Amino acid sequence: MKNNLILSFLLIALIFSCKPDDEPTPSGTGGTVEPNDTTSVVEPGGTENYLNGDSEYIFDQSKLHTFELNLPVESLKKINDDPAAEEYVEGSLTFEGETIAPVGIRYKGSIGAFVGCVSGLDWTNPSGFKTCTKLSMKIKINWNGSDTKFFGLKKLQFHSMNNDDSQMRDRMGYHFFREMGVPTPRAVHARLVINGEYSGVYALIEQIDGRFTRQNFEDGKGNLYKEIWPLHSNGNVFSDNEYLNALETNEDEDPSVEMIRTFGQEVIDAADDTELKAVIDKWMNIDEIIAYAAVDRTIRNDDGAFHWYCNGNVCAPHNFFWYEEPSEKTMHLIPWDLDNAFENIISDANPVTPIADEWGETRNNCNPFRSGFFGITQKSAACDKLIGGWAKFDTEYEAQRERFKNGPMSAAQVDLLMSQWSEQIRAATEEANEKYSDAISISISEWESSMQELKTQLNFARNK
């Protein structure tokens, strides 16, 4: 598999450089194409579809939508020259004949999203100009303080899927979580065109924000936090400022972090397993969180909330959100960034992400330890008192695993979905392969082989 994190730590400069016949230029794909000036701009406030339609249309599982981005040449060059800066520039979005302008447009991603796709050689600090055809992108509809929405959405996120030749992991993973009753962003495939140039197939992932919480929870006006755990790896709660810095909603409303802090403190104060389970039952929907764990561990989402990466003695997970539902006083864990799920089911194929322990197990007296091909330091997830408490619900966990394997992950369901989704994107995948020949281009045979590999991984997990 090309542009995989396995390769990203091996001979980065050699493996991920463009082919000799395709010397990258700082401007990247489409840098010399003028925006389409013939499309009329629809002013907000009329009867336009994008102002009156619902987000269900954008995330219709039966459709492959095309989104067209237009940027002034200098603006496109600016973001192509330094994608990792993740700086918005002004442009427009055209969808089904309607143009929304202005919108903010930028590249997005963590370190893994830029490995091999920018010219800088230090993968730990992405820099330099764009060298891959595709990079993940974010579109800000409510640009410069505008209250305009696009089918009810404020932002669009297009994930490049550069680490996934099957082009199915994101969509399949989010589908699994949602089908098991876990609050989860919606995902579909989409075609993206930039300044008139077809860029390829992307995964369009729903933004997790206040609109998401209002749609998914009865009381959706509570605090949403990104990538902060309720308790620190040292066994204490965080400071108020640390919780506040992780807020994704209510930042301007003098928010209180009492709920997440109290939740964490009550977990810490639980004197034994019985008290700990009672605290978890008080604060969380047990079916929901144990279903989360069952899906996460079955699909080996090893780069998610249960992988505690360590820097010295400080360890923390990533790729998750927490939502606190104020009226119900319940806490909800939301999955995020699933492009490295499914890789390590049969064996630890990715030397960076694998979690060393089985669910609920601990090792090394709960001190950090080195693991895997590169000896990257991690800590047993169940050493965290909250995760260790979830693992005590062993009967519920096995029941949720069986429900998952015999339901959403059954062979019949997986085969049906992959058949439908692959037919949606087959022509678009072939079009991209014919147009581009850089390191992330996927031939139809490679794509089909990778989808079969994904099915093999799922079949192994189903029968393990």
Largest beta sheet: strand ordering = 1-2-3-4-5-7-6
User: Roughly how many Å apart are the termini?
Assistant: 25 Å
Sheet-strand content, in percent, reads 15-25%
Shape: globular
Average pLDDT metric: 89
Compact description:
By secondary structure, the protein is of the alpha+beta class. It has 16 helices and 14 strands.
Provide keyphrases for this structure.
seven-stranded mixed β-barrel; alpha+beta; single chain; disordered N terminus; 464 residues; four-stranded antiparallel sheet; 14 strands
How does this structure look, described?
The chain has 464 residues and is an alpha+beta fold. It folds into two domains: 202 residues, no CATH class; 189 residues, no CATH class. Helix content is 33%, strand content 17%. It is built from 16 helices and 14 strands. The strands form three sheets. The chain has a seven-stranded mixed β-barrel with strand order 1-2-3-4-5-7-6. A hairpin with a 4-residue loop joins strand 13 and strand 14. The longest helix has 25 residues. It is globular. It starts with a helix and ends with a helix. The N terminus is likely disordered.
